[in-house]
Automatic annotation (TrEMBL), chain A:
Keyword line: ATP-binding, Cell membrane, Ion transport, Iron, Iron transport, Membrane, Nucleotide-binding, Transport
Topology of this chain in the membrane: Peripheral membrane protein
Organism of this sequence: Methylobacterium aquaticum
High-level lineage: Bacteria, Pseudomonadati, Pseudomonadota, Alphaproteobacteria, Hyphomicrobiales
PANTHER family registered for this protein in UniProt: IRON(3+)-HYDROXAMATE IMPORT ATP-BINDING PROTEIN FHUC
Pfam families named among the record's database cross-references: ABC_tran
Name of the featured protein: Iron-hydroxamate transporter ATP-binding subunit
Amino acid sequence: MREPDATGRTDAPLFEVEDLTFAVADRTLLQPLTARLERGRVHGLIGHNGSGKSTLLKLLAGQQSPSGGRIAYAGRPLAAWGRRAFARQVAYLPQQPPAAAGLTVRELVGLGRYPWHGALGRFTAADRERVEEAMRLTEVAGFSDRLVDSLSGGERQRAWIAMLVAQDAACLLLDEPTSALDIGHQIQVLALVQRLARGGLSVLVVLHDVNMAARFCDELIALHSGRLIRRGPSRELMNAADLQAIYDVPMAVLPHPETGMPVGVAL
Amino acid sequence: MPPVGERPEPRAGWQRPALIVLALALAALALALRDLALRLPPGQWGAALLAPDATDTRQMLVHLTVMPRIAVALLCGAGLGLAGAVCQQVLRNPLAEPTTLGISAGASLALSAATLWAPGLLAYGREGVALAGSFAALLFVFGLAWRRALSPVSLVLAGLIVTLYCGALASALSLFHRDYLIGIYLWGAGFLSQQGWGVAAFLLPRLGVAAFLIALMVRPLTLLGLDDEAARNLGLGLTGARLAALVVAVSLSAAVTSAVGVIGFVGLAAPAIVAIAGARRLRDRLVWAPLCGAALLWLTDGLVLLIPTGYREVPTGAATALLGAPVMLALLPRLRKGVLWRAEPAAAVPRAARPGLVLAAGAGLLALALWGALAFAYGPRGWSWAGLTGIAEMLPWRGPRVAAALAAGAMLAMAGMLLQRMMNNPMASPEVLGVSSGAALGVIVALFLTEAPSRVVQLAAGTAGAFAVLLGILVLGRRDAFSPERLLLAGVATSAAFGAIVAVAMATGDPRVGTLLTWLAGSTYGVDPGEAAGFLAAAAILAGLAPMLARWLDILPLGAATAQAVGLHVPRVRLVVMLAAAVMTAVPTLVVGPLSFVGLMAPHIARLIGLQRALHHLVGAAILGALLLTLADWAGRTIIFPYQMPAGLLATVIGGPYLMWLLRRR
């Protein structure tokens, strides 16, 4: 039930940014950035703390207005998108999901359907179905009637991701979706993200753990002090020199004992 | 990464606060020197201060009235500023000040009660009575919030309820004993006139001790500004630290209150002004807030002295808001996110398993109440019950009032629900935001400018006032997408200015004040059938339209980022919700006055009995608001027949205890 994007140009790149900058007072958080993101891939956004990852994500999500430069989604400037039309295309998960006082998981996930039915439209059977499916995919169905605020950190994070899935957008922007999760649930969530991408979604995800990023992302984008310094397929970026440039600490890359995948280790 | 949208923190946050304090103090000094020069040649000033010539009346006058007055203004301002800064830190709320905790309301009630029933007590000094009242109110507030480890939200909420309740009781007393209590009005308004150095000598050691104790507590206080977990993690006993800090702050402000009366707004404005000006760290605020408070009060007092005294002097305590409110409004655009306000994770709330059933029960209760209000009454021949058939006979008399109360209650409750959801703040309500005050101000202007204004003129003036406040809020809020904290502060400033004007009006002793007092307390007495029909129609239309906002109201409490992420045009949505709330406030304010607090209580009660989804919450609040005002109106007609008590006042008396019980239970 996904609509074609409003321009009808499905060949347009997902995001196109040109000379994008963001500054607060005299501090520049994002240096002029020009890049294109392709559809149907999982992009991992990595970098040190304060490198501008979250800022970039907020700019792409339309949560903040850039200080300069242009952002286009599906070939159309961000400003030209209506809020709801944009929300049908792009779903955004902030780094710290807010408290959801008095809402059950099912109700929270149901709010993800807002872009589709709006303030007055009927909450149809199809909406309900999407909500159930989203809860099943994220494995929160088991506690769907519990209050969100009564859940553990990991459960709550998955409930929020379920809301994003129910939003049924073509693109997910996730700001550290695994920060509150144990390693099992981290793998679970990222595998889900990967599965969604195989189903045609595009994903841009901020991740702290470079190994998780390498394992689940098709392509890595590395920021350093607000500047894009590396970009490439995950496997190619997993080498000692590049990792050292990204994180400013000496790194080594070892082959995984079983899969042979490169694993980065700080020395 | 630091939250984007903030300027880099300045290294030393003292230049701008210092500049503001200096500007205020210089202006005050100029006024004081001018006043002194009129009374005494400059050459004799030193002598007048230190060793006045007892035979020179002018010197004695300066020594015993002018100079102590300046000293008292400075001491009171400093004390209130310090107490306010501590309270705001402990409660993590920019709206907190000692009066938020019920202190002046408790003092005022205690004084009123003592004047009427135990005048002997006053012979021992009203300071003692006022202090006892303050601490009784404070104990009550602590008792209500104790189970939640005195958490900021529950403290502020409990303080607000106790304030309202004491205020309602005190107004009820003053309605019946206006002649006896005129002195309390004057005391309550905060006069600074002195007849000697006694008050200054009373205040100085108390301020010194409090400042010393607070200086000892700077570190725990800094930790209290973090959230509870972080503070506890750092080894701080939360309840003990909060209790100690609050007791010091409250004792200080109770001393000020008992010495000179209620001086509103300084405790709120001084810390807010220095924080907005850039005193970011707590220790900076603790230094600059008292200085700013002292300068602010001194300047206000200087300005008050400029006003030619007519029938009576204008009380300084009331005038503070007139000066402080504009200063604060002017500074609001500088308010940085996160400096004053941090959202509190909401406490776990109960949730009704079957909200539909709860609503149906509420509707049934409302129907019963309506029937009772129409049929059951106390008259010259005792209690009478009109049953079903007799209602038709009574309808022309009782109908309009019941209808007006019903409509007003429902509308105010819906307005409060909209504002609480939109701002995600339990203290938000039309009364707190100043929209009610604006409407009331319009009516007051009409009352004083025209001879016996008709109901229609009052309606027009009230509507104009409400929309003027709304317009101000809109202009002020547009710059940052109507951020809740600024709106709340602006609303509080407006309400404070309004309270000041009312207090000044009361001190004039004008006979029209009686009418005003009745109307402010909220009376349905003058409603005619045509107006009642109009109110009912307005309520029906608004209640029909409001559910269209339900989805927005479900999403808005999740914050602006989430709301935008799911496709809400946040500024536009906030504008629509605010407009709806304004209309829902302006209309009922004309019926029940600005002080009913139904808009604050009904949405809270609805939420606490478990109505969490926006639609249930909305309908439940409307039913409860209607129920509350209908019952209050009925009680007001019967309790002291043939006299009447205003419904708005009784609504607080009836709803208050229930709200307290709910708060205590959860």
